[in-house]
Amino acid sequence: MVIENGDSLEDMLIEILAELPVKSLLRLRCVCKSWYTLIKDPIFINSHLKNDSNTRLIVIYAKEVETMDGSQQVYPTDFLALYPDKTLEDLSLQDLDAQQPVIGSIWGPYSGIIIILGITNLVTLWNVATQESRTLPKLGVLSQYRRFASTKVGFGLDLVTNDYKLVLILKFRDDKRNRVCEFPHVAVYTLGTNSWREFECSKSFLNHISWFLGSVYWDGYCCWLLEFEHKELKNDNHVEILSFNLGDEEFQEIQGPRIPESAEVSLDVYNDSLCVLFFYTNSHCFEAWVLKNGNWIKEFTVGPFIGFYKPLHFWKKGSFFVELNTSQLLLYETSTGEMRDFELECLWFSTHIYKESLVRIKGGDNLLYE
Hints:
The protein has 370 residues and is mainly beta. It has helices at residues 9-17, 22-28, 33-39, 42-50, and strands at residues 55-66, 74-83, 94-95, 104-110, 113-118, 123-127, 132-135, 147-158, 163-174, 179-180, 185-190, 195-200, 216-218, 221-225, 238-245, 250-258, 263-270, 273-280, 286-292, 295-302, 308-314, 320-324, 329-332, 339-341, 348-355.
């Protein structure tokens, strides 16, 4: 390999190591002290996360399963599975259910980390690649309220402290008064200190986060799409996005592009930019708008397609997943216009972009294979 543009051997080594899977890197830490120091360095961990070669696809899907006694009764059952092939040429699935450290509701993955809300209301972080997990300290608000009415989750890197934070937006059920509490409760967990900061938030837009869409992480912010119905001004027909700055831990609204008529909306990140993706239900076209230098710019329009229900997430090189109205998962390659059918037979599914991660759940050097 030829060294060009002043690249050093150390730079080349970092670039090569950033391409490797987590399992290989954990073993390579034993080669020498300098490699050990490099592989646990936060800057290298972040570079490894950004590398497309470490990107995989996770699906959560439901299918009917016969009862254990062999009777004719079938029940919808959820499955958590990974497509190990990073090229998606091989569509074999790897079951992740058996590896799951606790049973509960799943959010993510974010930065390779899955968040699990257990049946006892305890939150667990799980790094799928390292098989490391941590159950977080109990939330103080649970001493007053025992039941969640709804939960919204965000997770990402605080660019100020270079530490990871988990954000929970919680609505509780007040059993004594038999109603949902008026104001949401916000809890921010900091990985490095293993501690929560909790506060009640009276801002009305927290009650209007889209129920069906999760959060996205973008440049130090956790972002959620807001429902259109919450707007006080009826003539304001722009997309509204709720952002949470992981640095100063403040909420604010971001005005998105104008909402076209007869359009479904989703939120994602495209080429490191916050992106709003429209699906025109009449013309069956997709349209992507990205936020650049404070302005929304139309990135591309593709279609028309026949029978598509909604866009899901971006994949690699601008391709993205779509869900057919017959519950089929397809991948659209924007460069070639080709469509790939995953032939996933299920009742319903959700797709999740997963990046193998070296992020340390327990802090310090407590990684697997130490």
